[in-house]
TrEMBL record:
<feature type="binding site">
    <location>
        <position position="340"/>
    </location>
    <ligand>
        <name>Zn(2+)</name>
    </ligand>
</feature>
<keyword id="KW-0479">Metal-binding</keyword>
<dbReference type="InterPro" id="IPR005019">
    <property type="entry name" value="Adenine_glyco"/>
</dbReference>
<feature type="binding site">
    <location>
        <position position="169"/>
    </location>
    <ligand>
        <name>Zn(2+)</name>
    </ligand>
</feature>
<feature type="binding site">
    <location>
        <position position="184"/>
    </location>
    <ligand>
        <name>Zn(2+)</name>
    </ligand>
</feature>
<dbReference type="GO" id="GO:0046872">
    <property type="term" value="F:metal ion binding"/>
</dbReference>
<feature type="binding site">
    <location>
        <position position="344"/>
    </location>
    <ligand>
        <name>Zn(2+)</name>
    </ligand>
</feature>
<dbReference type="GO" id="GO:0008725">
    <property type="term" value="F:DNA-3-methyladenine glycosylase activity"/>
</dbReference>
<feature type="compositionally biased region" description="Low complexity">
    <location>
        <begin position="66"/>
        <end position="78"/>
    </location>
</feature>
<keyword id="KW-0862">Zinc</keyword>
<dbReference type="Pfam" id="PF03352">
    <property type="entry name" value="Adenine_glyco"/>
</dbReference>
<dbReference type="GO" id="GO:0006284">
    <property type="term" value="P:base-excision repair"/>
</dbReference>
<protein>
    <recommendedName>
        <fullName>DNA-3-methyladenine glycosylase I</fullName>
    </recommendedName>
</protein>
<feature type="compositionally biased region" description="Polar residues">
    <location>
        <begin position="40"/>
        <end position="57"/>
    </location>
</feature>
<feature type="region of interest" description="Disordered">
    <location>
        <begin position="1"/>
        <end position="84"/>
    </location>
</feature>
<dbReference type="InterPro" id="IPR011257">
    <property type="entry name" value="DNA_glycosylase"/>
</dbReference>
């Protein structure tokens, strides 16, 4: 009788349980009811794992252990992802392809158009061509090899002037005064050994104090007339009346005129001691001009230890307006030092003149 009332044992949570037939509910209805009731049950926590919910949920059918998805992807997905990555790398890196091709064939190098390396190679090639042009133009090497490439036969004068302006020292621009340009190209840095010319440059260097070389060069002719062609013997005999008249006639500062008169007296004393003003000055540089190798005007100093030494010695001998900065400017003007930039064509000309005179 008992066996007729009860159905076959069902397994709930892994244990056999007997239930009456009247209490049994179809499996589909039970499952749907459980799904509806499960979120309302207070026993379940939102953070509970699927394993725990499966263990607490009453069901007549034997529980099926849930299979968790492994983090590792299947081998088919791996192969597909690898294929996609390979396609992306081949599309995005044509330069790497070229490098691999170049590894197989060392004689051929292929680069992507517009790459940084290609632009850099073009820049280097243009720089090398410019360098060859300079060398051919300045005569450092035989220009016959590069004559056809660099210098055309019917080149206009405008292009030559443009190249000269580009190659001059950095402080020379297209707006520079023609007087100053001519002085730079013909006189500045050229070694001077004439006593009267050295005295003239010393006067002009003192005159440009507080202004600039352009204004001093424009007054050069008036200075020659005022100081008797820069004859030190005549200037040393100037009286106070002569000094005041020169200041009134030529608009020259009185202190500058008195300083020039004192310098003329110092030149005469130096001549008695060393034989000439030239020998006195050039002995400080061992009778050879100092040839610098500056590439930028910012590197050119305002004074050096050599100019400080000459300045101290001249001050002891009664010279005026001969500070280290003025003396260095005088050294540049008289050619005791060649401060033309190495890109300037006058740099080579001044060094060649220095070699010929020595």
């Amino acid at each position: 009788m008992c066996h007729s009332k009860f159905s076959k044992p069902d397994h709930i949570n892994g244990r056999p349980v007997l239930q009456p037939k009247s209490n049994q509910v179809p499996v589909l209805e039970r499952r749907s009811s459980l799904k509806k009731v499960s979120p309302r049950s207070p026993t379940l926590s939102p953070k509970s794992s699927p394993i725990s919910t499966a263990s607490t949920r009453p069901s007549l059918s034997p529980p099926i252990s849930p299979k968790l998805k492994s983090p590792k992807s299947s081998p088919l997905l791996k192969t597909r992802n690898n294929d996609k990555a390979l396609n992306l790398t081949t599309e995005l890196s044509p330069v790497k392809k070229a490098k691999k091709a170049g590894a197989n064939n060392n004689s051929v190098k292929v680069e992507a158009p517009g790459s940084i390396a290609a632009k850099r190679r073009e820049q280097v090639a243009t720089m090398q061509e410019q360098r060859k042009l300079r060398i051919a133009h300045y005569g450092r090497t035989k220009s016959a090899k590069l004559e056809k490439k660099v210098v055309p036969i019917d080149s206009s004068s405008s292009t030559s002037t443009i190249t000269q302006e580009e190659n001059r020292c950095g402080y020379m621009t297209s707006n520079s005064d023609p007087v100053y340009v001519a002085y730079h190209d013909e006189e500045w840095g050229v070694p001077v050994h004439d006593d009267m010319m050295l005295f003239e440059l010393l006067v002009l260097t003192a005159a440009q104090l507080g202004s600039d070389w352009t204004s001093a060069l424009k007054k050069r002719q008036s200075f020659r007339e005022a100081f008797s062609g820069f004859d030190a013997e005549v200037v040393a005999k100037f009286t106070e009346k002569k000094i005041t008249s020169i200041s009134a006639d030529y608009s020259i500062d009185l202190s500058l005129i008195r300083g020039i008169v004192d310098n003329s007296k110092g030149v005469l004393q130096v001549k008695k001691e060393f034989g000439s003003f030239d020998k006195y000055l050039w002995r400080f540089v061992s009778h050879k001009p100092i040839c610098t190798q500056y590439r930028s005007c910012h590197k050119v100093p305002f004074k050096t230890s050599k100019s400080e030494t000459i300045s101290k010695d001249m001050v002891k001998r009664g010279f005026r307006f001969v500070g280290p900065t003025i003396v260095y400017s005088f050294m540049q003007a008289a050619g005791l030092t060649n401060d033309h930039l190495i890109t300037c064509p006058q740099h080579i000309q001044c060094t060649s003149r220095a070699i010929s005179t020595s």
